[in-house]
Amino acid sequence: MSETFEKRPATGGAYEPLGAAELLDHDDRGLRVGAGSTTVEVAALAPDLFRVGMFPAGGQPRYDSAAIANEDWVPVEVSMQESDEELTLSTTAATARISLNPLRIGFTDASGREFAVDDEERGMGAVENPGVDVFSEPLGSPVRLYKRRERGERYFGCGERTSGLEKTGSHQIFYNVDPPLGHTASFNNLYSSIPFTLSMTNGRAHGLFFDNTHRVEFDLALEDENCAYYGAEGGDIVYYVFCGPTPREVVDRYTELTGRTPMPPLWALGNQQCRYSYMNEEEVREVANGFREHDIPCDVIYLDIHYMDGYRVFTWNEDRFPDPRRLISDLLEQGFRVVTIVDPGVKVDENYSVYTEGRARDLYCKTREGGEYHNVVWPGVCAFPDFTNPETREWWGENQRTLTDAGVAGIWCDMNEPALFVPHVSTLPDDVVHPGGRTGEARWHAQIHNTYGSLMARAAREGLLALRPDERPFVITRAGYAGLQRHAMQWTGDNSSWWEHLWMSMPQLQNLALSGVAWAGVDIGGFGGDTNGELLARWTEFGVFQPYCRNHTTLGTRRQEPWAFGEPYESVCREMIKLRQRLLPYFYSLFEECHRTGTPILRPLLFEYPEDETTYTADDEFLLGDALLVAPITRPGIEHRHVYLPEGTWFHYYSGERFEGPAHILAHAPLGEPAVYVKGNSPIPMGPDAAHTGETPADPLTLLVYPAEGTGESTLYEDAGNGFGYEEGEYARRRISCESSDGHIIIHLAEREGSFIPERREVRLELRGVAAAQRVLIDGEEHGPDQGPDGAVTVSLGEEAGPMRVEVVF
Ligand code: GLC
Predict the structure, then answer these.
(1) What is the rounded CA–CA span in Å between residue 601 and residue 584?
(2) Residue 144 near residue 126, CB atoms below 8 Å
(3) Of all atoms in ligand 1, which is nearest to the CA of residue 478?
(4) 654 touches 630 (CB < 8 A)
(5) How far apart are CA 20 and CA 241, in angstroms?
(6) Distances (CA, A) of 279 to 113, 284, 333, 405, 485
(7) Active site residue ranges
(8) Which of 151, 311, 334, 434 would disulfide-bridge 388, Cβ 3.0–4.6 Å?
(9) Is 195 within 8 Å of 218 (Cβ atoms)?
(10) Residue 575 in contact with residue 542, Cβ under 8 Å?
């Protein structure tokens, strides 16, 4: 196995912690202290966000890694106190304590809670004379930061990870690789790297983002149960502490720093279908027709690498796809968008203008000696764009015109760790040079390895925006670094058609969500190997609740389209995908919340119930928004599973059975009826059945409510579904609240905020789990109730107009 999967001792040499320090200077935000040949800067960027930088004295700190979206923080009120032993830097929310001999940094909040406190013995420092055989010249000294583990502190996050949600007692490697097909829960680093931990200590959260783009390792209380360390093979120590105290506040601030998920085009939330590869035009048409004939909703079909001419990026294979423009416009009429794969490797070929132009403009990575760096990927010998160079990114983005001119709707960035074939399962060597172009800053690959995928995705997104300024770009990426969410959504690469991978998807997506990547999904049905009917059906029962819903499989496997295995599996897939389609108004509202605040779409239970420690291990179930709890079956041949329901009243989506949480229950989930629970009093906006998102009218809009004693609310957000009018106020946001007490339910639809007027004309209320209604009053006027399906009470609210108060008496 390649060394990229193993712990490397480079961060484990003779460690020298910083010693005594003295104050050098201070300004409105923070201060600098000097410790020997090192300077350490501590600054408050927001009342609950501190940044610490350690760099060589006389140098300048770098706080502009590829992760950082926001360098422009509004002024905060900071007061500094100074004594011989200690300096403090206080905001309205928290205090950074800097003890001077030796230099150690820690944080407290207004309640006296201590967090992210340096280990007394080890603090931060560098590993002198690592004395190991790594390519050390470009790296400088390995650096490390040791933080005390608070009593009861538990670690989560770390981005795209295998295994369970909680990472306490683990060693984490952050180094993007394309692992061999068939990775398991014991694997460490995968395709993207987000060196961020969210800690929970006695119900309260804080976050730590170790912003270093070299190879990074964290030890989260594995080597020493009272301590965690954060180390990198080189570069400065730059880290950010998020004070919380809720996970929501941590993730909100973290995504303010590293960027938020852009508003997606609505079609990108629809069901999607892929295969490596749909080989030619006929096959693509057959698949598209298959969806319509089988009455299964679908919005997107992917073209994998065979659409290209000899895998040359930005070309079309004319034998397989003689007239892409016509194909794509025909598909659009059927309601399908087409997304094409693009890999970073550019085939070295004198007769291929993309290659020769990149060479003429000096846009590729170089060897140490100054030649063009070559390695082998799908097309054979390739050159690799230097995406650190802004000119490369512009050129790359502009090249997408070959695809967008034919009508391609989105770009799928793959192999961008980058993955190389020589040796197999490898990536660019440390000493490859990124010349940087007009940035004027050449860097070794080792210094920026983890950012290559993010920079490629950035080129794709910015290119799409330049080519089609009025459309929201859709970019999907496999690799990336912290902050990748502002350029692209992420899918988790090559999983396998195994039950274990179905299970692993859940903690993986939850940790990604806690690490800022809310728009993510795994390949439904599994990519590697043959799936089977039951696995595909169970996977679809889970997959439709992901923020991204795509079925994908590899070359040479059995067909995996939702109808591939006949009955009963086909019907299960159909009904689940139809449910997703109906849930799109709920999904879309969650995406808007995520775009505005960073709040994840798919959330671990601990995100909403941080004080309930039972949720910390409930990682094979999750929340979609705060109103739906999903607990998939992840083993063959069984129909029951344990589910933990947190505090509140919950209703089984299919049976209507009512549960009072907190409770451990045994759920019955026969095929086709997954264990999905709806929170009481939380109105869920749902659309009608439709074959795709473009089908109109999107009528009626149903507000599904399971009333329970008490109150609840949700938000419905709508806009044009594409374009940027929403930035100018062209959206409609509406709060819907529900109040229930003895035989009496009041639903308020608040005034619509924003200037967008939805096209729809019919809104209906569907109350489930209730007795037959006696009276319905809309704004005080009598209105007849209808008894809906399965005893539900439905009330037609007519044309959606102003605010409304609906009272139902039983
Ligand atoms: C990589 C991708 C996979 C794709 C294949 C061929 O393995 O992860 O999704 O189908 O390459 O392009």
Answers:
(1) 12
(2) yes
(3) 8
(4) no
(5) 23
(6) 59, 8, 21, 21, 31
(7) 414, 417, 494
(8) 434
(9) yes
(10) no
